[in-house]
Fold each of these.
Amino acid sequence: MLKKLKKCYLYFITLPDRLYPFANKINGHIVRGQKSYLKAVNEAFKIKKGHFGYALLFYRGTFHFIGALLFIVSITLISKQFFNSDTALYFLLASAIFALTYQEFYLHPKKYKQITQKGILDWMTWVIPMVVYLVLFFY
């Protein structure tokens, strides 16, 4: 079961890599998707270690924002359908924020050598929509 959860987690965190729409030339061949994404990351890291550059940062941030919106819709539906409670929604959002904090400030720096600035930006991209949702609809 834990192995399946890890595989699912890896699938979702690499989704932007696999869907990367911009082309890059590798060994004379034009490629898209994960190979193109990895080349763009490697080129950005050559300029400054740990920095993606503005284009990749915007691209990944867009995926984070869309993921945050999908997550908000999903947990709202889950909390209403299965628990019929706003308290469940608060609990699920708080749990998600805790998990994101752990992921962005402990797990990713340790596993992927992610710099703190990127962790802060990723965390804000996920958490700000959740907070705005709570303030607009439940406060």
Note: The chain is about 80% helix and 5% strand.
Amino acid sequence: MNPIKAANPINVTKGAFGLAGSAVGLAGTVVRATTHLMLSVLDELGQDTGTASKSSVDDAHIPGPTVAPTEPHAPEEPPVDVVGEALAAEATAERGEGSAGAGMAHEPRGASRDEEHGDAGLQRAEVDEISEEATAALEGDVEPEPHLSEPLLDPGDAEAMASELQMMSRAADPDKG
């Protein structure tokens, strides 16, 4: 070993603390093992060990959680026979019996309860009217209103925008060939 490192006070202090830590760990292990051995011998002999020494051993070994066997409580209500109810509902539907309001999954039904009772914002009758108006407008039966036939932009403004777009496209072209 290098004599300079052996005389270094930091290395000497580090070694002393390491040795002291090992000695404390060894002493703790010896005490814990001896206590555990003494408690098991006293337990085999049938003598009462007291609670103080028992708790120190339990703290040292820290066993896992203790599982207490318990039985689940019976439900307050009997279980609902879902399968039996579904089969009975299917049988009544096949016989044609059943409520008129509720249909099967494959039968058409209103999107919401409000629509069925006429409280929805857009009723099917309004949708039919809108589709009829659109069909008539596409076929040319209806003249468009005057504000719909006017151009949105002045022709001069449209030409200026087109030329500016063309100039910007040329400027952005990476191959300005």
Note: Residues 3-61 form one domain.
Amino acid sequence: MRYQSIISAVTQQERPMRTGGFMDISVSIEKDSIAIPIENPFRINLDYVVSRIDEFCASKGAAVSGLDIRGLIQQMTRGIAGCERGCPADAREFVRRGVKGFKLAYVEGGILTATASLGNNKELSIKIFPDF
């Protein structure tokens, strides 16, 4: 009975607490930006994330053709969430390897950044912030 009341209390919560394993993606062009929350970096919906980034870039008149946004996001989330060899080893290894068309950087605290020139003096910036 005790377990049923605990389960009931948990399922009745309107919003579950963020207890780790989350991350946020910030995408910006010039002074405009969007945030994309990722609830489970181990099961990221890449189609959704890439389409949000593509739509944002298109709304700013910036073309991302020739840039592998999908591969970048996949590797960035692995660099933060993977940490099989101990954080920040994977993130730093990812930055060392690089991704074609992007300038990568690791910022203390586990933040990964990627920037790319889009032409017309526009720069795309993608940052992934861990929340664990």
Note: The mean pLDDT is 78.
